[in-house]
């Protein structure tokens, strides 16, 4: 066997002290947020009633290449970071591929995913500002869990609007959020105007991330000294997740390795954006030629079948509009098990990179994702989250292509989390009851129609 270990751990001392801000190396920035009332570019003051001030500063910071990670955040990070970089020797053997497969494992904390990286940063800045309560939404439950851990640590009350179908599929996710002190409300609910409206139109709906965001934002702006925090999509979240990529790059360099292909699943884009950031920064400067691949569910194909247009980040149309790949904020994704990937839009940074041809995207079906998850878990001994398994699917596909061509490419993917709370899905798959749902063009038209009606998109669609 080669002298590359199965697991490479950086020391606590080697853990990055700065978040890398990819935007500083992007020659062109994505288009600015648009204020939904004035339909003009949003300025800092527009965002302050909803978000914490330092996070708004980070959202708008396109010039500082490195932003220092506050000491208290690094202290928290040390409870579960640095995260290991794993050489998938067993998977390589199982596939019989000449490819070298590596993955970064972000599931090594109680919340079970990368979401904690941004949760702790966001709660820290809220505490510093003297904010007395926080609201958020959660899809799969990972973000809600991560945030409840961070809120417990910094002692700030938290209300989590959890997509109704997820709260039913994953009662233990709800229980763990409550164990850490978060209050869980299945969304849509009757606790907000937005929720009541959605329920009146569609009483049987299982909810969506877009709809839970509307409720959480409304709750924050109608509660004194409260703010809303978001687990993905925004530039600030990708910034915090850059620690994944920086650790990865440091570990790969220690091993003398350089990826040819980097793969990540994409819901709102935060893990992928953080994972690829340093390497993408180098690619933008012409220093490498790595292929970057985003993997999304075929049932919610924002990149591969969406439009690049301005859209609301939520269903209730309360948030600023972002220019992104989107299926339209009215699009209701089918209840697939990768709840964290059921989002109509996509990170504006990744959307811009995709539009400029720097990022590829693939859409994969649910059953093919679980095929990959089973193969992976049986040889690598980690039970992956359904979301993360989207990346595994494409990593396996790329490794099998190498088997055909005989190329020994280096494939690096991000394993964002574990699937212990997804056993209903695994059970369905094991019993042969899992199905695929791929929206028809007519299904997608419903969402696109709402985009065409927005004056800001005139001439774009
Ligand atoms: C385990 C896991 N991976 C990936 C995602 C997708 O989110 P993002 O695209 O922001 O990384 C989620 C979202 O909930 C998740 O829980």
UniProtKB/TrEMBL annotation:
Cofactor(s) needed by this chain: pyridoxal 5'-phosphate
Upper taxonomic lineage: Bacteria, Bacillati, Bacillota, Clostridia, Eubacteriales
Family: Belongs to the TrpB family.
Protein purpose: The beta subunit is responsible for the synthesis of L-tryptophan from indole and L-serine.
Pfam families: PALP
Domain of life: Bacteria
Protein name in UniProt: tryptophan synthase
Keyword annotations from UniProtKB, A to Z: Amino-acid biosynthesis, Aromatic amino acid biosynthesis, Lyase, Pyridoxal phosphate, Tryptophan biosynthesis
Domain (Tryptophan synthase beta chain-like PALP): residue spans on this chain: 79-417
Catalytic activity: (1S,2R)-1-C-(indol-3-yl)glycerol 3-phosphate + L-serine = D-glyceraldehyde 3-phosphate + L-tryptophan + H2O
EC number in record: 4.2.1.20
InterPro entries the record matches: Trp_synth_b-like, Trp_synth_beta/beta-like, TrpB-like_PALP, TrpB-like_PALP_sf
Gene3D superfamilies: 3.40.50.1100
């Amino acid at each position: 066997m080669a002298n590359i270990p199965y697991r490479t751990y950086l020391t606590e001392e080697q853990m990055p002290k700065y978040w890398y801000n990819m935007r500083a190396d992007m020659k062109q920035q994505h288009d600015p947020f648009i204020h939904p009332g004035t339909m003009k570019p949003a300025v800092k003051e527009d965002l302050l009633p909803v978000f914490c001030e330092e996070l708004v500063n980070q959202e708008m910071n396109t010039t500082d290449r490195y932003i220092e990670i506050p000491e208290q955040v690094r202290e928290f990070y040390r409870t579960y970071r640095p995260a290991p970089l794993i050489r998938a020797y067993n998977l390589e053997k199982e596939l019989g591929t000449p490819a070298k497969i590596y993955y970064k494992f972000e599931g090594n904390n109680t919340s079970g995913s990368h979401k904690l990286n941004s949760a702790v940063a966001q709660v820290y800045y809220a505490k510093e500002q003297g904010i007395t309560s926080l609201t958020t939404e959660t899809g799969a439950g990972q973000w809600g869990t991560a945030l409840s851990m961070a809120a417990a640590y910094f002692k700030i009350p938290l209300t989590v609007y959890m997509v109704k179908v997820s709260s039913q599929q994953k009662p233990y996710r709800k229980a763990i959020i409550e164990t850490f002190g978060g209050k869980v409300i299945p969304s849509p609910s009757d606790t907000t105007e937005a929720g009541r409206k959605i329920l009146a139109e569609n009483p049987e709906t299982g909810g969506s991330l877009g709809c839970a965001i509307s409720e959480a934002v409304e709750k924050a702006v109608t509660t004194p000294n409260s703010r809303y925090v978001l687990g993905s999509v925004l530039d600030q979240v990708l910034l915090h997740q850059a620690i994944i990529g920086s650790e990865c790059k440091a570990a790969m360099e220690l091993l003398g390795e350089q990826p040819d292909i980097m793969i990540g699943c994409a819901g709102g884009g935060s893990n992928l954006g953080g994972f690829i950031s340093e390497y993408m920064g180098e690619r933008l400067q012409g220093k490498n030629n790595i292929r970057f691949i985003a993997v999304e569910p075929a049932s919610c194909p924002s990149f591969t079948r969406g439009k690049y247009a301005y859209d609301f980040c939520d269903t209730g149309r309360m948030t600023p509009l972002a220019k992104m790949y989107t299926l339209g904020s009215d699009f209701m994704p089918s209840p697939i098990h990768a709840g964290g990937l059921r989002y109509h839009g996509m990170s504006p940074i990744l959307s811009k990179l995709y539009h400029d041809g720097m990022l590829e995207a693939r859409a994969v079906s649910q059953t093919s994702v679980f095929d990959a998850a089973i193969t992976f878990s049986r040889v690598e001994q980690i039970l992956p989250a359904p979301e993360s398994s989207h990346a595994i699917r494409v990593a396996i596909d790329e490794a099998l292509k190498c088997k055909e061509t005989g190329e020994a490419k280096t494939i690096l993917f991000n394993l964002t989390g574990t699937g212990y709370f997804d056993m209903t899905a695994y059970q369905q798959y094991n019993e042969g009851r899992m199905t695929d749902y791929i929206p028809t063009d007519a299904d997608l038209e419903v969402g696109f129609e709402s985009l065409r009606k927005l004056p800001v998109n005139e001439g774009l669609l």
